Amino acid sequence: xxxxxxxxxxxxxxxxxxxxxxxxxxxxxxxxxxxxxxxxxxxxxxxxxxxxxxxxxxxxxxxxxxxxxxxxxxxxxxxxxxxxxxxxxxxxxxxxxxxxxxxxxxxxxxxxxxxxxxxxxxxxxxxxxxxxxxxxxxxxxxxxxxxxxxxxxxxxxxxxxxxxxxxxxxxxxxxxxxxxxxxxxxxxxxxxxxxxxxxxxxxxxxxxxxxxxxxxxxxxxxxxxxxxxxxxxxxxxxxxxxxxxxxxxxxxxxxxxxxxxxxxxxxxxxxxxxxxxxxxxxxxxxxxxxxxxxxxxxxxxxxxxxxxxxxxxxxxxxxxxxxxxxxxxxxxx
Length: 333
Hints:
The protein has six helices and 17 strands.
């Protein structure tokens, strides 16, 4: 039964193939959400090329100072180079080639080099030094990516840049990073199941209906709660541009063109980093004009809500991972 809510903003009546008022679903969500279809969609997503790229974190976070990350079992240090003409994210092993000290506990000098805290050796992150082999990076303006060659599928080529989704030209961005005891496939499968939104997150969503489905996308009409009894109704399309990313795009309603990118980066066996970037935009010129200035005020609010959602979903991702491991254990000879 649909909840009665006061709706703000435009209704999703244009820019989508869905009807203006889709009929009430004839079957309950637990029947409409077919595990076999989600598994097939997951298989198609995992089969897409990645070029070897994964997201490390928000570029804004790396700019605050050297940070330690673990990707696919490798300890890495990431830092921001401010040297004019060389600005960007640098990534390399978190082991000084001199005596193995953690570079992530060091500092960055005026030349943009990472300086070892143990004996002061400065490394540019652009050329190899002994056992220090920098990795290829890409800054897309919101997120910092790193290319990890061992993550490409058999026969797949490394690419010069990641497979990026289409983004709005002007936006307010907010990014969170959480970790979970699961694999990237659990995160992607979670996002390929929009049916759970209003059931598992009633504090944020209501009146969710699937209005369009295809092999490579699924569109849900849903009310995003602003406050108790108040919300905005949008059509949100979910698709996967590469095996460790799901993109949700607002295709109708208020905020057309806004996207939420969910990236799953393997940390080690059974542990995954979930990096989610929200890029909010608007068709209204009056809103577009103040979006950049509003970032400092609104970003913490957007990030707090996104983190609340992912603390819920991470728990479920851990559940699916645990069940899969138990099933695999029972099938072992």
